[in-house]
Amino acid sequence: MPRDRGGDRGDDRGEKTSGDIKRLKNIVGKVSEDVKIRLDQLIQDFMARPELKEVTFPKLLSSIDRAYVHYQATKHGLKSFSTGSGSERRLTLTRAVENTGMKAKRITLTEKSMRGISALLATVPPDFFTTSRVDADNLPIENLRPGGDGSLKGVHASRISAGPSPKVPKPRRNQEFLHLRKQLPIWHHQEQILETLEKHRICFIKGATGCGKTTQVPQFILDDATKKSKSVRIICTVPRRIAAVSVSERVAVERGERLGQTVGYQIRLESCYSPCETLLTYCTSGILLRSLSSPNYRIVEKTTHIIIDEIHERDRQTDFLLACLKDIIVLFPNLRVILMGADLNNVLFSSFFGGDYNCPTLQVDGRLYPVETYYLEDILEMMKYETYDMRSTRQSDERTKIYNQMVENLQHTKLMSSKPLSFNGVSSLADEVIVRPDVDELIQQVWTIGDEYALAEYFHMVEANDVSVNYQHSTVGVTMLMAAAVRGEIEWAEKLLTYGADLNIKSKYEDYELSASDWASDHRQHKVLQFLLEHKYNTTLMPAVNAQSMNSEKFQRLTSYLKSVDEERVDLMLILRLLHKIHVNSDPNHAVLVFLPGYDEIVNLKHLVLTDRELGFRHGSFIIFMLHSNIQTGDQRAAFDKPRRGVRKIVLSTNIAESSLTIEDIVYVIDSGKAKEKSFDSMTGVTQLKSGWISKASVNQRRGRAGRCRAGVCYHLFSTLRYESMSEFPIPEIVRTSLQELCLHARSFIKPDLKIERFFMRIPEPPAPIAVKKSVEILTVMGALDENERLTKLGMHLLDFPLEPFLGKALIYAVVFKCLDPILTLVSVISYRDPFQLPSDPRDKEKAQKCKIQFARDSLSDHMAYLKAFQDWETSKLYCEGTQRRFCRDNYLSAVTFEMVYAIRAQLLGQLRASGFVKNKGPSDLLELNTNSDNWALVKGVLVATLYPNICGVDRDDTKKVLYNSFNTKIAFHPSSTLTKKKNSIAEIPTEWIIFDEMTQQGSGNLVKGCTCVSTAAIALFAGSFSSTTSKSTAKEYVISNHEYPSFTFKINQWISLDATKETLEILMSLRRKINDFILKRLDAPFVYFNKDEDATIQVIAAVLFCEDEVLGFPSVEGVGQWPKHVAGNFMSAPRTGYAKTDENEGSTSSVAASFVAGMNRPVFYVVEVSNVSQVSDLIRSGVWLVPAQIEDKFWCTGIVEKANCGDFIVFLWFPDSLEFVGAMKVNSQFRMMRIPEVPVQVFSDKRINFQNVEHVGFAIGLSMDGMELDYELGHVMMKMFEEPQWSS
């Protein structure tokens, strides 16, 4: 079939080559902006409906339009092809289809591995591999260990403390800030807000950024409660950690109190509150979400007001919270919910909670100075901007006129064909008021039984102008078009549309608003759905905005400019010319803020500015700052300071400066109109980080940066036409992200008989049902849910971890296989962010990559690079602070990221202790749980179980040696991966399998990052689904694949199959079943330890994986696991349980108290008061203690005699508010002789002991026990009390 003039191929459904994509890109520049806008909208509509496998565009598209769609399809990971010829030419978009015909990989175990397995089979009982796991209820008592950490059951660092019951707040201590509070716009609405809360249980406050709603609304409630002697307790959520801390500090200062009294905060890894005093708690959305999953909503029972702030940001946890609160508020009549946000769809949220009557909206204006605004056409005209490409474009005027005439004729045809019929002025608005029982009956009959006679009568009434074709049922609001969609009748729908039926009308069903397309999708009527979408495409391909408002010269300049540039890229040269204009013609003390999509644009613009002939020579007259989360710039805080007089500040930033930050001296804003946004395809598991147009709400936020402190100017680098086509508000995060964690929380929150998918439909703008369904399927494969969507034992434990479910699963596997230290580090890194940073100078990219490769130690693993970088960073902390800074700077690492990773490790270890998986002493202590930590092959096996199904195969048959999986046949390594160190890296990989953290789309290809090469044995043992029940040995797990040469196939999933001999597969299946049972046994009873046969099996599995890696040529890496360490050697890495490794010559005693008795110098015992229980957690996490002034003289041993008699220093932590000892810690004697300001400590117990329990040993309470020394006998008895196992009730 001949090729179109526009470059649109015939019925070619194959992969597009790089030449095809380049040719298409050259053509798309000829497409006008208004056509691009509408075609982009149509593509987005298709992508928003994952249930549709394909969609065909109208045949009215020109060849150039089709070329544009082909090009956009490659960017979005879609397939596209055209069929037909001439006027019948049509283009079809399709999604990636799973490939199930992959060739099976051969697996053979080495002779050494087979001998080891045979030796195991000879020693274990014959039925060892066929019996079920031992039920915890029937275990002999000698196999059970006391739950020494039982007191921690139910304690979660990622949930809000139960805290006090509501009570009357104390009066504020001073009015020093009253005059400043009165200047805030929100102050004048105080009485209105309080009156609304008296009358309504839910209200919505729409306040501009800076109006003071976050700090003042909670204070209004507190002050009113104090005045009226009402009992209150308030929880206020904010999206970011830093906001929770800074806002709570501000509110505490305004009240004249210390933070942690009436006002506190609780965020992940950090908290400051009093369990007896705090009545206002600021927290992140995730903290409150996890708190709601506690039994019987204990948190809500003690709360009177819940404030959800910044809901306009539409993060997934906030949207999910709204659906939860809608159900919860019905159960607690005294609860008040306040929603607060800035630029957002207040109608959507108000109607979600029942409309203005149930959820009134209060409008609060901000303090914004006037901002002069220029759009792209104004900027081009003002600067008389013209390039060579623009002049070349104008030389083709004649061809442009012909093309424009074609488009105009095409648009006129569409307008004529889609013009709705007139029905003598009968409007749908009038019919909404008039109730027609006879018409209701006709719609109901068509809906329920597909009655053709009822439909014919309805058509007769429409033709007679007796009723509007858009009449909505008086009770449920459905139209006849919706009924036709539900019945799957395309002919009926087509006739209704010709009569003028409106596709955009929505019915109100329970809590959902659904259009005809939504009803068709909900009832799986995909053919009707595709027909309705095609009709929508036909009527959408019309200009929405014309250029009449522009004069002819301005419009021509804009048109020639848009055709001469690549709209996918930001025009940095135009920004450079704008900066020059601003710098020459305005006050140099006025700063400039430039919004750019990402790292490349920021560093490239900085380079252009510094090397420009006009701006570069004025280098001393300006200073440039870059704001980006992954740029290694230690002076980012300096961007908020004013430079010296006469020096202009230029800030290059991503959207981080939209609303989170306020830079006081900004007067000029240059807005590229673009931002990078991450989206996730639930079907293929591919993540896209792409640059796209922002929403109108974001435009307003960026413009407002120029008018925050004085009158300003904003330059938008997009046309008025583009602005009008932008979405009103940002796309909610919940519709473009993975839903596995939220699905797990939903299951713990909703009623058992309610499906997870139905609950998600209650969210204001719900994700696609198929995305929820896919997430539930993954959780089922993971073993977190059973086939009936009920929580399994694994799922219940995963809820306790503040992690994505697959990362929580890694911790359970690490405990079972005794390789906790490396997995704990890797889980912390993956859950937070990559510690390797982008260099601020793009010329250093290669150097930064070499540093990362060195950390990988030739292991062919990015995870090894993460692990070794963290371990070396810990070592650098042993020296001075400058050493650590140099280490991070020289290796392009983020110290802030590692500090966070370190804290996450501590939190996760604490949760493992609280759940009973980790003990202080004996079996399951840190020494035992790191027995296999140095076996990198076993650690990789655990990573396989963790990251599945994120697996790629190596296609050695392909000439280009590519990676592949079930959806993609051409995958490459991400440039940041250490596996890209060689040009032909894939061909030199010794194994056939790669696991990865994330797959991203770049252009028409897919890239994998966070990669590790693994053996086929690791895939065979750890990949695949996890069974929540004991595996049966009789199950048929493999089939004969070749009758002539005995070979058998084990199918892990639809595309991963392994071929082996029957003997090999039987051995592998036995080990797989046993792995499954080991996990189940530990989940049933975390305090149960394995017997000798089970331990031997784990060691054999570890040995097999090690041998297979050795045969493949993987190097042996030492020091993979580095726990436990000597506390004195590196106290920052000391076990958070307080356990310190004993020297082999010191004997095997594990009791801290016993070691004291054996020592030459006896310890001393002191009591120190703490003002907050959370200080114990801080000490556990940091391992560092600032010696208090009241015991300084008694603590230090600086004299010769003192040093000779210096013993360990034992501190019992006393919390007077609850009359409890809340922990015990030890300082080794050598640190008492150094006189350093901060000393390393071991918190060896955080058990809570009530004062009544120590009275019998002769302890007498005094008015103040802070700094009290105890005699040796009493201290020794209390030490034993802290070390005694504590049984859970």
Automatic annotation (TrEMBL):
Residues 33-97 form the R3H domain. It comes from the Eukaryota. ANK repeats lie at residues 476-508. This is ATP-dependent RNA helicase YTHDC2. InterPro entries: Ankyrin_rpt, Ankyrin_rpt-contain_sf, DEAD-box_helicase_OB_fold, DEAD/DEAH_box_helicase_dom, HA2_WH, Helicase-assoc_dom, Helicase_ATP-bd, Helicase_C-like. Residues 557-750 form the Helicase C-terminal domain. Gene3D superfamilies: 1.20.120.1080, Ankyrin repeat-containing domain, P-loop containing nucleotide triphosphate hydrolases, R3H-like domain. The keyword Hydrolase does not apply. Keywords: ANK repeat, ATP-binding, Nucleotide-binding.
